[in-house]
Design goal:
The chain has a five-stranded antiparallel β-sheet with strand order 4-3-2-1-5. It has 173 residues and is of the alpha+beta class. The protein folds into two domains: 53 residues; 111 residues, CarD-like, C-terminal domain (Methane Monooxygenase Hydroxylase, Chain G, domain 1, Up-down Bundle), CATH 1.20.58.1290. The protein starts with 6 loop residues before the first strand and ends with a helix. Helix 2 packs parallel to helix 4 and helix 3 packs across helix 4. It is 47% helix and 15% strand. Strand 3 and strand 4 form a beta hairpin.
Length: 173
């Protein structure tokens, strides 16, 4: 059980602070269940979720060491632009990656969409709306967790990653 004040990753919402553990109001749909009151760090609102929730995964935020190790793996990750026969198939693929919460898969998804963006720019075209939407969602989830783990502002995560990847790449050459 997580304790008040702890940071957790709650499904596709991202990083939340556990504000309290409480019993919901009488006549609530969650009556009789112990619930977390979660406050998302990077969006408005609060979330009540049962402590025993099988539908939406909840896990601790990665440690600083795990974050640096994950960033260190980026140069070795292989990916290519994801193509699907229909927009619906592409959306389902992206949703599955987002729902999985796997950090490495989020990075691969972002790298894949970035490759598509570069290809589109080379052809003087724009990236598709589905790609843009899921890129933003993947960035929000991954950068949010990295910001919490590294204790840096959300808007500095991308530069932090770029600097570490650049340092690692220059050491290898």
């Amino acid at each position: 059980m997580f304790q008040p004040g702890e940071l957790v990753v709650y499904g596709a919402t991202g990083v939340c602070r556990v504000e309290s553990i409480q019993q919901p109001e009488p006549h609530s749909a969650l009556q009789g269940k112990t619930c977390y009151l979660l406050k998302p760090l990077y969006q408005d609102g609060v979330i009540y979720t049962p402590v025993e929730n099988a539908k939406v995964p909840i896990r601790p935020v990665m440690t600083r060491e795990e974050a640096d190790a994950l960033i260190g793996q980026i140069p070795t990750m292989q990916t290519e632009a994801c193509r699907a026969p229909t927009i619906q198939a592409l959306t389902q693929h992206y949703q599955a990656v987002i729902r999985s919460g796997d950090r490495r898969d989020l990075i691969r998804l972002m790298m894949s969409i970035y490759a598509k963006q570069k290809q589109a720019e080379a052809q003087k075209r724009r990236l598709g709306m589905v790609d843009e939407r899921y890129m933003k969602q993947a960035e929000r989830l991954l950068y949010g967790e990295l910001a919490a783990a590294l204790n840096i502002p959300f808007d500095q995560v991308q530069a932090y990653i770029a600097r570490l990847v650049e340092e690692q790449t220059s050491l290898q050459t």
